[in-house]
Amino acid sequence: MSTQVKINPSTIQGTIRAAAGKSSMQRACAAALLRKGETLIINPGKSNDDLAAIDVIQKLGATIRYTDEGDLHITSNGLSPIDAEISCGESGLGIRMFTPIAALSEKPLTIHGTGSLVNRPMYFFDEILPALQVQIKSNEGKVPLQLQGPLRPANIEVDGSLSSQFLTGLLMAYAAAGADGITIQVKDLKSKPYIDLTLAVMADFGWKVTHENHEYFHFHGTTSSKEGLLKYQVEGDWSGAAFLLVAGAIAGPIRVTGLDVFSTQADKAILQALMDTGCRMSITDAYIDISPLPLKAFHFNATDCPDLFPPLVALAAYCEGTTVIEGVSRLSHKESDRGITLQEEFGKLGIEIGLQDDLMVIKGGTGIKMAKVHSHHDHRIAMACAVAGLCAEGEVIITDADAINKSYPDFYDHLQQLGADIVKL
């Protein structure tokens, strides 16, 4: 049965802590699996994607338990699968990262996905893995993926234009395999900040990879050599916090804590867009205060941070004038075709959105109408519509509203804690 949430016009205020970052959490799970020994993940995430990653590492041989403080204790002897069937749920990062890692095993394994993941392209692996001595059989470039390893690192050239997540998996698999004197050459890499995050997590776990301008990645034969219990703290999630910050700019004042302003997460770029609108914002190491002022239209390039499109559209809807966002080509292989979905659902809210080549053009400041919208089973669309509804002319009802569980299951609760009038129908 479809879940529905009703957003009534609201002002919000108070302090909220950003949720754990699933980009950081999932990478830490993979690193903890590949590192032999014990790892304590502090502030672990609990989104559907995070839970899928925890399930994957257990099936690949890690054992887990939660401490009394709620931290995640992982013990691993390296990759030693206990199940031949692995599901990455609906996580795009999960399947793209864990497929090369799983291919390190000599055991034949099958990687599955659910929901929108069954339609997302994986032909990258059909092209690359055979060059690394892995036999792969896909479903015409989609899941399920049948693998027979073990993966042998080799000098290769890969296309980074579809997603950086494929490269994340290769970097981790190569490092875990002890690759030495080997180079991965990458053409046209998108979302470079996400690769910086991968390299930062790997460094925290003891693997060092160097690169030249994100085009040549060199491996130096390092293996994770850190002794004893390794502690890794998951930083706050800029992707989810972007919606809170936009909500504050529209309907605040609010304070958001738990975010690292020096983070390598790509979606930290939301701060630049917010500054460009002229909202009132104060940024410190400990918190970000944000409150409304008359907002003006902005121009923003989201090519390296495509997940910001939905919160940016909610923001642009309240900005006087025409906002232009670059990078629409990055949106077709998400949980929905986000360019079309945003155009359709915000159209119901009275916001005109044009798509021109790689540009999205949003005519803002015209007011948000009361309407019933659909998430398209896409977590970020649900959150964008909820934020847009905070200062609408009347109620906004979102169907399939529980899509938020993929990345930010506490989102509606957090808005309610800040005073938003949200009713779960």
Annotation keywords:
425 residues; alpha/beta; UDP-n-acetylglucosamine1-carboxyvinyl-transferase, Chain; 2 domains; four-stranded mixed beta sheet; 12 helices; 30% helix; globular
Write up this protein.
The chain has helices spanning 22-34, 48-59, 92-102, 123-128, 165-176, 192-204, 238-251, 270-277, 309-317, 338-348, 379-388, 411-417; strands spanning 4-8, 14-17, 37-42, 63-66, 72-76, 85-87, 109-112, 135-137, 145-148, 156-159, 180-187, 209-212, 216-220, 230-233, 254-257, 280-283, 287-291, 299-301, 321-326, 352-356, 359-364, 371-374, 396-399, 421-424. The protein is α/β, with parallel strands linked by helices and 425 residues long. It has two domains: 4-19 and 236-424, Enolpyruvate transferase domain (UDP-n-acetylglucosamine1-carboxyvinyl-transferase, Chain, Alpha-beta prism); 22-220, Enolpyruvate transferase domain (UDP-n-acetylglucosamine1-carboxyvinyl-transferase, Chain). Strands 22-23-1-24 form a four-stranded mixed β-sheet. A four-stranded mixed β-sheet has the order 2-15-17-16. A four-stranded mixed β-sheet has the order 4-5-3-14, with helices on one face. A hairpin with a 3-residue loop joins strand 16 (280-283) and strand 17 (287-291). Helix 3 (92-102) packs parallel to helix 5 (165-176), helix 5 (165-176) runs parallel beside helix 6 (192-204) and helix 9 (309-317) packs parallel to helix 11 (379-388). The relative contact order is 0.15.
